Amino acid sequence: MRAFFEQMFFSPKWYHYPIIVLLFPLSILYGLLMLLRRLLVSKKDFGLPIISVGNLIVGGSGKTPFVIALASRLKDVAIVSRGYGRESKGLVEVSHNGKVLADVRQSGDEAMLMAFSLPKASMIVSEDREQAIVLAKEQGAKIIILDDGFNRVGIKKFEILLEPQRIKNYLPFPAGAFREFYFSHRYAKVVAKEEKEFKRVVSFKNLTERMVLVTALSTPARLDKYLPDGVVEKVYLEDHAYFDEKILKNLLEEHKADSILCTSKDIVKMVGFKLPISQMKLKLEIKNEIFMKIEDYIEGYRSEK
Length: 305
Hints:
By secondary structure, the chain is α/β, with parallel strands linked by helices. It folds into 3 domains: 2-39, no CATH class; 41-171 and 186-198 and 285-304, Rossmann fold (3-Layer(aba) Sandwich), CATH 3.40.50; 200-283, Rossmann fold (3-Layer(aba) Sandwich). It has 9 helices and 13 strands. The protein has helices spanning 2-10, 17-40, 63-71, 104-107, 109-117, 129-138, 245-254, 264-267, 288-304; strands at residues 50-54, 77-81, 92-96, 99-100, 122-125, 143-147, 158-163, 190-193, 198-205, 211-215, 231-236, 259-263, 277-286. The strands form 2 sheets. The protein has an 8-stranded mixed β-sheet with strand order 4-3-5-2-6-1-7-8, sandwiched between helices. Strands 9-13-12-10-11 form a 5-stranded mixed β-sheet. A hairpin with a 2-residue loop joins strand 3 (92-96) and strand 4.
């Protein structure tokens, strides 16, 4: 069922269209509600530059590696995220100036990957993003990066929207993957399209002759074009799911494989596993013009204050 709706959202076939037509009125209603919310809610200024990296569609679009690339260029920066897939609630300090303070089940996989990847940044997860921004500012942050923040309409911020290379279904949820009407991208300061303003670069570590791909990503089929030779089986879990070491060991034995192949987002949930692991490492090549616009925003904001 999940695969059916993922395909309907991102690459619909003829048999999806009766469902799309049936859900179309709900999509229009949902889109209108989101538009009214965007237009009517006033924006709060927190007194420091806030850069939002988000997208309009559900699922992955490169936000995490984009945030990592951006934060690595900045000083005194804190990242605020909801912490998708975590088992904790409330506000959790994941890292402070690079020192990791929580485990992956408290933080969620994406937040932990950012914490591990950024030795000079701080990482906070909270359902209440405003509370997290206030704490980060109190602790000395001079710049906030708001992960997946486009729909946080009550916060004054510089909006960056990431778009996939191809979009085949432009409808809002539940008939499509969009969180708002597509034309809402006009509210962003920067709209970065994959393969135009940024592109993914994949490298590998510890490859072996026979590997079982195990991943807990949204739309995992997008990995297919990057896979190396030697993948003998693919195992897809729900987005943000956690792994069982014994099950992974059984997969290796069942398929006579030499290692588990996983992404960097997955590997943070395998820390301490006594298993041979091969890694897919993703980074983004981002046009310098985007960074220049961000720097201009930061300088402009500070000069106004």
